[in-house]
Design a protein that fits this description.
This protein is α/β, with parallel strands linked by helices. It is built from 13 helices and four strands. Helix 2 packs across helix 5. It is flat, with a radius of gyration of 33 Å.
C-alpha cells in the first residue's frame, strides 16, 4: 500500500492527507487572529491570554490550552492553517523504530521533536512548535536529508521520544551523576559481610570483657564529640578576621528616615466597549 494512504491525520474542519512538503508561510496570520476568525476564541479571552503571556513569557497556544479557552483540536487546527503543516496522531501511529538514530536525542529533547516516518523521499518530523522548525530543519537536513514538518501535541511527542529511546534514556538517568559522587558501584553484599563481621566481633567482645568494650565505646564517643567541637571552633575563629575587615570597609550603616507609605490608587479607563469592559473590570 502506498505510504500516503497509511498516514493517519487528525481531522480538523476539512480532512487532508499529509503533504509531501509543508512549509512555513511567510507573513502568516497570528495564531490568535486565526482562532478569532474561526469563532472558537472570543476577543475577551484573547486579551486575557495575551496579558498572561506578557507576564509569564509562555507560548500563546499553551496558555489557551491550560485555561480551557480552546480545545487541543481547535488549537492544532489553527496551527495547521498558520504553518501549512498537517497534524498527526503519534499515539495511533507511533514513529518508525528504525528512525530513532536519525536525529540526535539531545536535539529531540531540547526542541521537542521526533522523526515520524519517510514519505515521498522526505523525513516527516513531528513538532509542537512550528515557529522553530526552520532553524531545526537546517540542522537536521545536514545528516537526514530533506525534512518536512507535521504537528503533534507536546505530550505525545515526549511519549514518542521515550518509546524510541527508552534504553538510552534509562542509561542517561542512571549515569547522570558523576562516578565519584554516585553509588553505582556500591557493593551491597560486601558491606553486608563487613557489617555482620563487625557485629560478631562486638558480640564476642561483650562476652569476653563487657567492661572493656563499654569503655572503648565511651572513649570513641568522647573523641568524636571533641573533634566535632574543635571543628566548629576552628570555623568560628576563621571567620572573625574576614568579618572585621568587611565591617571596616563598609563603614557605619547609613541613617534612614522613616517615611509614610502612600496608598496605591488604580484608575480604570475603558477605551473600547466601555460598558462591557467596565463590568468585567469591576466584577
Amino acid at each position: 500500500m502506498h505510504p500516503l494512504r497509511t498516514a493517519k491525520i487528525i481531522p480538523f474542519q476539512s480532512r487532508r492527507s499529509v503533504r509531501p512538503s509543508p512549509e512555513l508561510v511567510r507573513g502568516r496570520e497570528p495564531l490568535g487572529q486565526l482562532l478569532l476568525q474561526s469563532g472558537v476564541l472570543s476577543q475577551e479571552d484573547l486579551i486575557k491570554a495575551l496579558a498572561i503571556q506578557a507576564r509569564e513569557e509562555t507560548q500563546l497556544g499553551q496558555i489557551l490550552l491550560n485555561h480551557g479557552m480552546v480545545s487541543e483540536a481547535e488549537l492544532f487546527g489553527a496551527l495547521a492553517r498558520q504553518s501549512g503543516a498537517d497534524p498527526v496522531d503519534l499515539m495511533a501511529e507511533p514513529p518508525h523504530h528504525h528512525l530513532r538514530n536519525i536525529i540526535d536525542l539531545e536535539l529531540c529533547l531540547k526542541e521537542n521533536i521526533v522523526p515520524w516516518k519517510h514519505i515521498g523521499g522526505a523525513l516527516l518530523i513531528a513538532t509542537s512548535r512550528p515557529d522553530r522548525f526552520t532553524a531545526i530543519r537546517r540542522q537536521v537536513e545536514e545528516t537526514a536529508g530533506p525534512c518536512r514538518m507535521v504537528l503533534a501535541p507536546e505530550q505525545d511527542i515526549q511519549q514518542a521520544v521515550m518509546q524510541l529511546h527508552d534504553e538510552t534514556l534509562v542509561n542517561k538517568a542512571e549515569t547522570r551523576t558523576p562516578h565519584p559522587h554516585s553509588c553505582r558501584d556500591w557493593q551491597a553484599q560486601r558491606m553486608m559481610r563487613l557489617t555482620l563481621a563487625a557485629a560478631i566481633l562486638l558480640l564476642a567482645g561483650f562476652l569476653v570483657s563487657p567492661a572493656g568494650v563499654l569503655t572503648a565505646l565511651c572513649a570513641l564517643a568522647i573523641t568524636v564529640l571533641l573533634l566535632n567541637i574543635g571543628l566548629k571552633l576552628s570555623t568560628a575563629i576563621s571567620q572573625i578576621g574576614p568579618t572585621r575587615r568587611r565591617n571596616a570597609a563598609s563603614g557605619p550603616p547609613p541613617r534612614t528616615t522613616r517615611s509614610l507609605r502612600l496608598p496605591v490608587v488604580s484608575i480604570l479607563v475603558p477605551l473600547y466597549h466601555e460598558r462591557e469592559v467596565a463590568s468585567r473590570l469591576i466584577t
